[in-house]
Prior knowledge:
Layout: E1 12-15, E2 25-28, H1 30-37, E3 44-48, E4 55-62, E5 69-72, H2 73-83, E6 90-97, E7 100-106, E8 112-113, E9 120-124, E10 133-135, E11 148-152, E12 158-165, E13 175-177, H3 181-187, E14 195-200, E15 207-213
Parallel strand pairs: 3-7, 11-15
Antiparallel strand pairs: 1-6, 2-5, 3-4, 4-5, 6-7, 7-8, 9-14, 10-13, 11-12, 12-13, 14-15
Organism: Rhododendron simsii (Sims's rhododendron)
GO molecular function: DNA binding
Pfam families: B3
Amino acid sequence: MGRKPKQHYPSFFKVLVKDHDFASTLLIPQAFVKRNLEGEVPAKAQIKDQNDSHCWTVEVKKTGEKNHYSFMGSGWRKFVRDCELKDMDFLVFKPITNSVFKIVRYAASGCEKDLISNPVIELPVQDSVSEETRVNPAATARISTKRHVKLRNEKGKVWSVEICLRTYPSAQGRIDLRYGWSDFWKQNKIVDGDSCLFNFIKSARNVIDVVVQKTGRV
């Protein structure tokens, strides 16, 4: 995606300050841009956790004078939301290339903190579940016992779906997604062989972000 980093390609850190609207944009240090990108600032960058289990693609745009560039766009906002970043969090950006960064997060206490703690459940899709599907997440406790949850796709569109929490012993806390799931299925053009990643958002107990992975087709 980008050229290989120099042997001593430096990391940089940012302290998140609410008054600077970090939820929408984050300024990349001017010195880092000047010394390391050498006029080759990428239009987009990838941000990853330390284990490569989560990845966000964010826009990189010039926001002022020379060498003033920022992370922004829908990808950055999703990163902030998914990781539940807070005022005075401390992020260390470790470049892998000029457009790929791994991040270490520290809380205001100075202690390292998981970048993302929302459980993610992958569900392979079959035609037989187009009207009703079953999710058996360890994250059942993340969802309240209300009758509906909101499924949110990558574009931010939301569908209300009825849920049924199975309480008998053999169900082991299984959740059935029922009425409304069919609309989500059809409007997101899900077909047999695709899979859905259910990201249970801790800060919003009845919201589940869903990423549809189009496996086996373009």
